[in-house]
Structure formats: C-alpha cells, structure tokens
C-alpha cells in the first residue's frame, strides 16, 4: 500500500463504522496555550468539555501536527532516529460521548490485523497502571477487553499486554485540558519478532508505538487536579508516517530484515531523490551509533532525514499562515529552518537548496492538503527569503565558531550570545555545533547575557506606571465607562487615590470614561473639574498591573482632596480622532488579509490622534498597485457607513471567523468588535459608531521593520484631508513654477528631463573636445631627463576621472615617462602622478613623489609605484612649489 492508500483505507474503514470525515484543522491551533496544533484532538476540545455540541458523535480525520517547542517536542530527535518528526499526520477516530473502550479497541485490532495484515504475534498493547499519587486507577476495563481479544486470537495476553506508567499511558494535551488513560499498540520489528515485549517503550526503532487510544474522562485543571467529565470520549491517534514506513520497510509484512524507518515510505522518496541530485551524495540508511562521533556517511544520512522532515514542517506551516519570525511559534519555525540550513552544510549543498525541496512536498501532498497548492507562491517566497537572510550571516558565524574552537574548549556565554544576537544562531543550533566540534558551551553564561539584554529592554520601556503600582494596592480595578459616548463629558466620579511619585501626580477615580493606553491605543487626555472655578488638565491615562486607571495631572494637587466628588471630561475631539484611527486599523487589517492572504497577522499597532501605525507579517514589500487597492477597499468600507458593534462573550462562544490572539483561557470573557461585517476581531479598544465617521483613509508609507514584518502608516479624517490639501498645494506651486496646469506636470517634467539629458550629452561632448585640445598643448610641455619624458604641470580640470584619463593618454603617447599633474579645483589641490614601467625600473616611484609633493603642499597622499594621488588645501602655493620641485631628487 502507498501512503495515500493507507490514509484512504483508514478513513474508509471508520466511515463504514458510522464516522463522519472531518478535514484537518489549521496548524495554527484553535486551542489556547498551544504553539502549534499538536494532536488530532485539538479541534475537538470544546466537544470534550461540553462547551459545544458536535453535529456528529463519531468522527474520523487525518490531522496535520507539529511537535516542536511546547509540551510535546520531538525536534531534538529528528534526524537521529527514524520515527520522530516535527511535522506528521495523525490519523484518528473519535467518539463524542458515543462508543467507548470496547469498540475503540476492537476496531483498532480489526483494522490492523484483518484489513491491513499486521502480524498479530508482533503486536503488543499497553494499559495504564498508575503509581501512588498519579491520577485515576489501573485500567482494568481496557485490560479485560484486550485479554478477551488476544485469547480468541491465540496470542498470550500475559506476554502481549504490558503495563504502562503515567508518562506513557495517561495522555494530556498540555498541562491543562481534556485527558485520560490510554492504551497503546506497539509493533515488534526485529527480524525474528521474538522480543516478547521487552522493547516496548524502550525507545528502540525495532519496537515502536503505532496507535494510541485515549479514553478521555477528565479535565486537567490549572490547580493540578483532575475533574471528571460528564461524558466519556474516545480520542485515538495513529502515526501515519510510522505505519506507512513499516508497510514500506517490511514490503507489506513479508520481510523483516531491513532497518525499520518512516523515511522508507513514499512520502519521502521524492525529497530524497532531489537531495541526492542536488548534493551528489547518496542516502544509505545508516544510523548514528554514537552521537558524539558520527562517521561521514552517518552524518550525511542524518542530514537527509533532517532536511526531509524540516521542509515538510515549513511548507505546511507557511501554507497555514504561520511564518518564520522572532517570537513564539514563529521563532520555533525560524529555528527549524536554520537547523535545516546548517545540516545542509554536511551535504555541501548549494545556496538556496532548501527552497528547491518545496515542490517535492507540494506535489506529493497537495492531493489531500490542497492549501499547499494554493499557497505555493507564498511558501516559495517565504522560504527563499528566510534562507537568503540566514545565509548572509551563516558563514561569518561559522568562522567565528572556528576561531573560538581553535583557541578554546568552551564557547563562552558571551560568544554564544553574539552568535545569537548578531549572526542569528538560535542557541540550540550553537549547542548542536558545539557537540559536533566537541566543545563545551557555557549555557548559564548565555542565559545570563540574554537576561541582561531583556533587562536592558525592560528598563528602556519601564514607564512610571511600574513605580506607581509598586506599593501593593488591594483596591479593585477601576471600572471603565468610556465605551459609552454619553459618559465622555462632565462625568461625575470620586477621587479614590492620589499618587505623587517622581515629580508626577496621578489620580485614581471610582469610575472613569478615560481610556488608558493599551493594545496600541494611546491614553485619553481631558479636564478635571474640582469645582465650578478650578479646572486641572489630565495629560495622560495609563493602567497599572492591578487594573487601576491612573490619570496623570499636569499639576500636582493637595492630598486632602481624597474622596472628593468631581467631574471629569475627556477631550472629545481627540478621542474621536483616536477612534477613527483605531477602527481604520481594523479595516486595514481586513483589507490586507483580503489582498495578501490570511498569513497577514498583526504584529503590533499604535493608534493616536494623529495617525495609525500597523505592523504585520508579510514577506515582501507591497507594490504601489496593492497599496492603492487596499486603500481603495478601506475607503469603500468607509463610504458604506456601516455600523460598528461590540459585545462581550465567553471565549468559547466567539465566532469562528473572529481574528483572535490566542492566549485567552476558555471561559474568560472576550470583547468582539465587528466593523460593519468587514472585520471581526477581539479588541478592548474604543471605536467609532459607524465607518463613515472615519471620513477618509490615506496611506502615507509602507516599509520593512524586520525580516518578514512590514509597517504601514496612514492618516484618517481631518489629518487625511490636511495631508491631501498640502499635497495639492505643492502641486499648485509646482505647476506655477513650471508654467503649466497641474494635470500637465507629468509631461512637462518628462520633457524637462529629456532636455536635461540632451544638454548633459552636449556638455560632455564639449568637455571631451576641450580635453583633446588640452592634451595637444600639454604634450608640448614634456621635457627629457634621465632618458624619460617629464611632464610637470598645473591644470584646472575639475573632474578626477577626466584628469586621470588625460594622464593615461599622455603617458601612452610619451612612452617612457613621468607625469606629474597638480590640479587646482576651487579651494582644493589634487596631485596625480603616473610613472611608466621604465621610470619605475629606474627607481622613480609615483607614491613617493606624491607624498613628497603633498608634504610641500601641506596635504596628504601616496600610492603605488605606477599611480598615486594626493590632496591639499589650496592657498595659492602651487606655482611656488612646482618651481622648486626637482623630480630627479625623487629617485630612490
Ligand atoms: N491524542 C492522542 C495522541 O496524540 C491520541 O497521542
């Protein structure tokens, strides 16, 4: 069976047992607190928790998973063994409160042994046996079901059922979430198949787990307890690449003499073939006997496996909009890519090789995962540019490492940090290289250097708010009432705290309509009315870590005013302009995703009363046309004057298509902002009531701020009008100066530029003519001395290239010669000396002549024996110096 036949057969088998096929979810997880989708069950978490009801009670799927970084992390094993991957597919069947252990186990046995022909005497199953303190109890039910089946099949249960501990047989998605005991099916792949279960869970490639059947019965809570769920569920996960590898290695279970390997399956064939072609090396299936001392071929074979694994991870994650970057999951991807490039060195692959592997993955996999084909261009662009940018620093980083290795046995923390910070070497790469070169690495020193840098960054960012809240305050968070426009003016409240710190005064009120700087939106300003006569300016609003909203006053006030009832007003126009910018930012985000793709993700934003700034992930500069189209669409949305709505819902109820920055916990309340049906985002900021209020959006600039991150700045409302008016004013002035109408400027400038080019051509011709006649005149000045022609003269040729050209022409004409030019150009003097080969043989040296002349002229200069130049300030000394200059004295 080919890999794709195996996948289809799995899906068909469970469809026939009443399961609904559910497509793989994105690698960008829908579950909070995960770096990547790491198991088939992630998308079903709300069903397990009872937060949502599925439309089906049985499901089957093949889920794309990445296990790198996070709780389940297989990155370090990839390449060194034959059955761990960073990217893999997990085949799964699911019961949501429907069937349980009996059916799950019986069907697993049926598919493996009856449909696919796995030899039953080679299969071993594990059941959960907790140690004291572990959750739940011995899984007697699973044990009994297995015992029954195995007995019927004449397989000894006492040998083929193995107990497993909490680590192997109690499955958890992360530290929290749905979980439960599991039973795993392992296969003995030794030649004779007679290990009697002794290799189970021993990390041997000759006995690997192929299928995990989890019986979800609990939810792991944040406090470490396990809460039983109302319904019981089945979650199974089969390693697709493992099964495909086993079937390929054993030639459909007919030959167990080969080394088992996932990489033997047809999923990897094309990638390996391409690598062989690119590198000239052959994959020979060797495995490292010792990681510290690999042979050349072992290293080559590890490289094949690493590259084949990593290219799949990169292709699939980019297709799902997760791009390499500097933080979180994006950084994990960057590390994987760089790890691949580094391993590529062992195969002596040409630059840009990694991107060459992309099409092997797309062509092989896009039948089942069409997103690979749709995102082909994006995948190419991103990998090519990442690869290029790392290659730029890779050699220099490796040279630094070689230098270190030549001198020391240890890479210091500071050097590791330089490699990280300057050359882009993730620390695990440096660790890898250190290991290979038998160097120690001062990891504590590295962590210290990292911490110091973080501290520097923190203190650079530290705002007074930190100082303000240092004194632990038990008062509840301030209630914000400023979403409601009616509260913005003359809002009655009470001063609950006055803080004087570092020469600044902050007030906390019982409730406030003042928005505190947060989520990119700057804080409000406004007025505090102490009484009918006394007004004080509020110049900024910030929030401390206890949720208190702090209003910074322009002046200080008396502490006795604590508890006083006052009125406060937000500067309404300023707030409105901020809101326009904020809502426009959401529209811009929407339009960017519409035009560039869903990989576009917000990477930061700033909205104030003057402009908006939006940073987002994208791999290349936007074209002028793209920017125009995006601007056009945002303005169309503005013209529609669609209503803006916001509401709060529990996280689990947020609409599917809402853009969220995962990190919220289930159950916590989130605020959804719906901009006229165009954009749906989780956002805590303030917005206009309807899009028409924005008036107009004009993009000012689009630039890169880091590899893969772009920044757009734009203005809206009055600021946009101001910008357009000042631009049209400039146009008016330009058209006046050019004596034409504004719409004629372009043609007018084109004509002027053409004329300018013509004039420059003419000028050049005249200059050449002048030089030619000058050449004739100067030639006449040559005098013989020491069997050489000497040409020593003052010129006024302002262009250095012309001067050099003239000297070379003259030298060609004169033959054996020395040419000495001093050219006065305004307040500077340029010295140029040319010695022919004959002159050099006689001991004349252009560099020495220039340096001697330069000293006399009060400047600097020197050069080679045949050609030299110098410069000095012109103070009228040239004629005098030349008069007294004795060339023959220069002979050395
Ligand atoms: N959720 C189980 C696993 O990932 C099946 O192993």
Structure at a glance:
This protein has 892 residues and is α+β, with helices and mostly antiparallel strands. It has 26 helices and 32 strands.
Key structural traits:
about 900 residues; alpha+beta; six-stranded antiparallel beta barrel; 26 helices; binds alanine
Walkthrough of the structure:
This protein is α+β, with helices and mostly antiparallel strands. It is 39% helix and 24% strand. The chain is built from 26 helices and 32 strands. The strands form seven sheets. Strands 1, 2, 3, 4, 5, 6, 7, 8 and 9 form a nine-stranded mixed sheet that branches. A six-stranded antiparallel β-barrel has the order 13-14-18-17-16-19. A six-stranded mixed sheet has the order 27-28-29-30-32-31, sandwiched between helices. A hairpin with a 3-residue loop joins strand 23 (669-675) and strand 24. The chain is globular, with a radius of gyration of 37 Å. The N and C termini lie far apart (87 Å). Residues 460-472 and 662-667 have low confidence and may be disordered. The chain binds alanine. Alanine (ALA) binds next to strand 8 and strand 9. Alanine binds at residues 39, 41, 171, 212, 214, 235-237.
Strand elements, count:
32
Alpha-beta classification: alpha+beta
> What is the number of helical segments per DSSP (H or I, 4+ residues)?
26
Say which molecules are bound, naming each kind only once: alanine
Which spans have pLDDT < 50 for at least 5 consecutive residues?
Answer: 460-472, 662-667
Q: How many angstroms does the end-to-end distance come to?
A: 87 Å
Note the overall shape.
globular
Radius of gyration: 37 Å
Note the beta-strand portion: 15-25%
């Amino acid at each position: 069976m080919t890999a794709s036949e195996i996948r289809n057969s799995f899906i068909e088998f469970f469809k026939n047992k009443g399961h609904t096929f559910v497509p793989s979810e994105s690698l960008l997880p829908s579950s909070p607190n995960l770096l990547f989708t790491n198991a088939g069950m992630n998308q079903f978490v709300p069903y397990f928790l009872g937060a949502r009801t599925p439309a089906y009670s049985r499901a089957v799927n093949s889920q794309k998973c990445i296990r790198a970084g996070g709780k389940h992390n297989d990155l370090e094993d990839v390449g060194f063994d034959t059955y761990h991957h960073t990217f893999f597919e997990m085949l799964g069947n699911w019961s949501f409160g429907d069937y349980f252990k009996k059916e799950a186990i019986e069907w697993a046995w049926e598919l493996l042994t009856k449909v696919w022909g796995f030899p039953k005497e080679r299969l071993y199953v594990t059941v959960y046996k907790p140690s004291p303190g572990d959750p739940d109890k011995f899984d007697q039910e699973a044990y009994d079901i297995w015992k029954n089946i195995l007995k019927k099949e004449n397989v000894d249960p006492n040998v083929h059922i193995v107990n497993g501990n909490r680590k192997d047989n109690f499955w958890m998605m992360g530290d929290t979430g749905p979980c439960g005991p599991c039973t795993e099916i392992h296969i003995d792949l030794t030649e004779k198949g007679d290990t009697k279960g002794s290799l189970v869970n021993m990390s041997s490639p000759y006995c690997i787990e192929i299928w995990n059947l989890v019986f979800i019965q609990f939810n792991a809570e944040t406090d470490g307890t396990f809460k039983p769920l109302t319904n019981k569920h089945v979650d199974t996960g089969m390693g697709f690449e493992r099964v495909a590898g086993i079937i390929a290695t054993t030639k459909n279970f007919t030959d167990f003499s080969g080394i088992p390997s996932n990489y033997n399956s047809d999923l990897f064939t094309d990638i390996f073939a391409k690598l062989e072609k690119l590198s000239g090396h052959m994959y020979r299936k060797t495995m490292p006997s010792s990681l510290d001392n690999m042979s050349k071929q072992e290293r080559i074979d590890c490289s094949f496996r690493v590259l084949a694994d990593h290219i799949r991870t990169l292709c699939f994650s980019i297709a799902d909009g997760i791009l390499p970057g500097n933080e979180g999951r994006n950084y994990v991807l960057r590390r994987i890519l760089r790890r691949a490039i580094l391993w590529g060195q062992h195969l002596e692959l040409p630059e840009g090789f990694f991107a060459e592997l992309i099409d092997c993955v797309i062509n092989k996999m896009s039948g089942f995962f069409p997103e690979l084909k749709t995102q082909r261009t994006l995948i190419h662009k991103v990998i090519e540019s990442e690869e290029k940018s790392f290659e730029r620093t890779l050699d220099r980083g490796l040279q630094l490492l070689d230098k270190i290795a030549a001198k020391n046995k240890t890479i210091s923390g500071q050097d590791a940090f330089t490699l990280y910070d300057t050359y882009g070497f993730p620390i695990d790469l440096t660790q890898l290289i250190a290991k290979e070169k038998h160097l120690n690495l001062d990891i504590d020193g590295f962590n210290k250097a990292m911490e110091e840098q973080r501290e520097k960054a923190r203190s650079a960012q530290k705002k007074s708010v930190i100082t303000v809240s240092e004194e632990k305050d038990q008062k509840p968070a301030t209630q914000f009432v400023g979403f409601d426009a009616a509260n913005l003016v003359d809002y009655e409240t009470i001063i609950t705290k006055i803080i004087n710190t570092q020469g600044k005064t902050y007030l906390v009120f019982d409730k406030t309509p003042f928005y505190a700087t947060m989520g990119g939106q700057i804080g409000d300003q406004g007025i505090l009315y102490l009484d009918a006569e006394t007004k004080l300016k509020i110049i900024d609003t910030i929030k401390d870590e206890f949720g208190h909203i702090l209003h910074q006053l322009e002046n200080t006030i008396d502490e006795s005013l604590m508890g006083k009832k006052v009125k406060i007003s937000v500067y309404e126009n300023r707030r409105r302009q901020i809101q326009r910018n904020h809502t426009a930012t959401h529209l811009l985000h929407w339009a960017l995703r519409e035009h560039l793709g869903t990989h576009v993700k917000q990477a930061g934003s700033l909205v104030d009363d003057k402009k908006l700034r939006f940073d987002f992930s994208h791999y290349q500069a936007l074209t002028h046309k793209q920017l125009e189209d995006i601007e056009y669409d945002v303005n169309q949305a503005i013209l529609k004057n669609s209503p803006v709505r916001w509401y709060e819902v529990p996280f689990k109820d947020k609409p599917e298509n809402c853009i969220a920055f995962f990190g919220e916990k289930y159950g916590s309340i989130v605020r959804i902002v719906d901009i006229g049906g165009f954009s749906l985002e989780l956002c805590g900021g303030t917005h206009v009531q309807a899009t028409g209020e924005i008036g107009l959006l004009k993009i000012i600039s689009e630039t890169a701020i880091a590899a893969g991150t772009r920044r757009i700045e734009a203005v809206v409302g009055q600021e946009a009008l101001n910008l357009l008016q000042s631009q049209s004013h400039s146009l008016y002035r330009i058209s006046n100066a050019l004596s034409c109408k504004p719409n004629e400027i372009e043609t007018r400038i084109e004509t002027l530029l053409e004329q300018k080019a013509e004039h420059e051509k003419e000028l050049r011709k005249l200059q050449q003519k002048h030089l030619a006649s000058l050449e004739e005149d100067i030639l006449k000045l040559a005098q013989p001395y020491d069997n050489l022609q000497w040409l020593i003269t003052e010129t006024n040729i302002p262009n250095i290239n012309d001067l050099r050209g003239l000297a070379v022409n003259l030298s060609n004409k004169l033959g054996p010669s020395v040419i000495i030019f001093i050219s006065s150009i305004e307040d500077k003097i340029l010295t140029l000396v040319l010695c022919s080969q004959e002159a050099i043989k006689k001991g004349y040296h252009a560099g020495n002549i220039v340096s001697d002349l330069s000293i006399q002229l009060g400047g600097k200069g020197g050069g080679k024996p045949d050609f030299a130049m110098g410069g000095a300030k012109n103070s009228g000394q040239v004629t005098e110096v030349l008069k007294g200059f004795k060339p023959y004295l220069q002979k050395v």
